[in-house]
Amino acid sequence: MNYQPSPWAIGIFLFFVSFVLFISYYYAKKAKSAKSYFSAGGSIHWSVNGIAFAGDYLSAASFLGICGMISIAGYDGFLYSIGYLAGWIVALFVVAEPMKRLGKYTFADALDAKFNSKGIQLFAGISTLVVSMFYLIPQMVGAGTLVEPLLGIPYWAGVLMVGTIVIIIVATAGMTSTTYVQFLKGGLLIVFSVVLTIMIVNKGISTSPQNGDVPYHEFKELALVDNDSLELVDSSLMITDTWEFDHVTLVRIFIDGRETIWEVNNEENVLKETLFITALSGGGTLYNGAPKEDAQFFQVGHMSEVAGSENGETGPLNPFTFIEAIKEGTVVLWEKQKIQDGEDVITVYYQNPTEGSKVLVPGLKFKVDSERGATFTDRLDFMSLMLALFLGTAGLPHILIRYYTVPTPSAARKSTIVAIAGIGFFYILTMFMGLGAMVNGVIDLSNSNMSAPLLAKSFGIGIFAIISAIAFATVLGTVSGLIVASSGAVAHDLMDRFMGIKLSDKGKVRAGKIASIGVGVIAMLLGLLFKGMNVSYLVGWAFAVAASANLPAIIMMLFWKKTTAKGIIASIGVGIVSAIGIILLSQKTYNEVYHLVDKVAPIPINNPAIISVPLSFITIIVVSLLTQKKTVTE
Amino acid sequence: MGHGPATKWEEDKSSDYKARLGIWMFFGYIIIYGGFMLINVINPKLMGLDIGSLNLAVVYGFGLIVFALILAIIYNNLCSRAEKKLNETKESDE
Fold first, then answer.
1. Probe site for chain A from B10, B36, B50, B58 (most A CB atoms < 10 A)
2. Closest Cα in chain B to A357
3. Are residues A287 and A245 both part of a single domain?
4. A335 strand-pairing partners
5. Are residues A68 and A116 in the same domain?
6. Residues A414 and A321 in one domain
7. Residues of B with Cβ-Cβ distance to A413 under 8 angstroms
8. For position B4, what pLDDT does the model report?
9. Does residue A577 lie in a domain region?
């Protein structure tokens, strides 16, 4: 897509960034001690911390990733909302109060409270770094993705800019400034998502969605005389290439010297216009056969049947009738097919009209129905994802450290409840924002992460500017939290406790600041490396690693008296290695990271939790039982 | 560097009760969440069942979010009550 930045968006964005930097500067003076730097002095009010939790948690994955996924795959994107929220139940009922009671700055403190073991300090510190890195990647990808339409600067510049701003926020004032940035951003995100949702349902649904800024492209059809021989009614046009696949036949026609690709529709005896992206062998990319600047790669997303009519319009709706109108109509979804055209690779997107009732149940992205081709491993993959989302939240280091910013365990509990209210409400809104993008002609098929900001843009540049600035702040906030967590792991867990380097209070703050700069730089590099992946999918991996490496250790330490230090160490180690091992050997990684399109990966599932979480639990039980004697003699 | 909580507070005599309550409520939620997962893999067609103007998938999905909040509020009330009762009683006994 070719985006035009707006001065309004840039203005609001700059204002927001300035304000955030001012907060950092203001609190920098107060963040002189380690307690203040790593845990905001334990003095944050629970209600502020609750919204800051929402700020931490509603990352780029939630806002950009989930809305984007719902917009192209319907209900399956919403599964992430359900899983992410359910994870807070584990956080509230199992870990909130004990974490606060046992810990000081990092979750390693709590894990190690009963044992004082160097091994736990080392492994918990490493685990924090690994999970934070997995979580940082999608945030940086989200940042790079956002700046392009917002500020009109390239992806890499966005990644570098976010990295730099975040390093300033964290390195100046640590957890205090991070908390207030999160509070602000979490609150604004929820408020403006409500505004956007009201606009969506109030606008209603039309088969020809008209947007304020980008006229909707009516997709063309070419009539066929006879579909067996693919002869066109318009004899001036000639099909030059035909590609046949299992589910679709595609043809190429040059019209006025311009390359076009069409899908053969045998039922209607027509050719239907497609969208396609050509990766040229000599480098460079064409969008619908033209350079990006020609703006030929149209936004998509509409219903072909609304209110029982192919030219229907609903008028203003309410949240219930909005979903009902989609359920009763037909949504045009877009399928993807890759073509090897000599040395070039063409990705073709073609229309797939789908009953609304099928859009609103799981199964378009995650196969669960055997009648629609789901295998046993597909279903296992689905279960595995839902398990990781459920168990991952309470193992995320940047969430766990937020329990140390409030004064008491009961404040930790209350802030979690505020978080559940705010986050749950937001996740319900993702359904409307995602479906809104799906039917309002605002999907950029080359980048599903842009659906929510483009939806805002269709309602006017003002709301787009605000939503984009908030989305950007979302990334800033979450990255800050992750970097605080990582710097705590380095300065407190690894340097101070594991290595026994005796740092003064100020020295520890300095070590934390240096660590935050290092982690920030690594995050920027990873952001550049992982460009183009759906951010919600990447976050799914972070959850899987957190659920496998951290949660079994936390739960067993709290609720099983026979747990030993060696059991915890082994469990964290096995959790990290098995989760990452499965991810690295999964089909999704083969296709999207290594770009091995035709290779079959050794591990049939993409989400590791269903294997790695039980494995981690078994490890902690077996190793703890084997090392009982030592614990008793000690 | 000392190794203990960042802030000091009074000993909480209700923590065992709260931990037990938390675990029970956690399992309560697991049953409902697990039910959602199982319907999806065992009988996914059920998710398309009409419930009023919506369907089971939407109602169950929204329901899981709302149910989490309701459980959280109940949990907080029970915990607050226990904190008040147990801590006050024990203190007056001593």
1. B58
2. B48
3. yes
4. A350
5. yes
6. no
7. 75-76, 79
8. 46
9. no
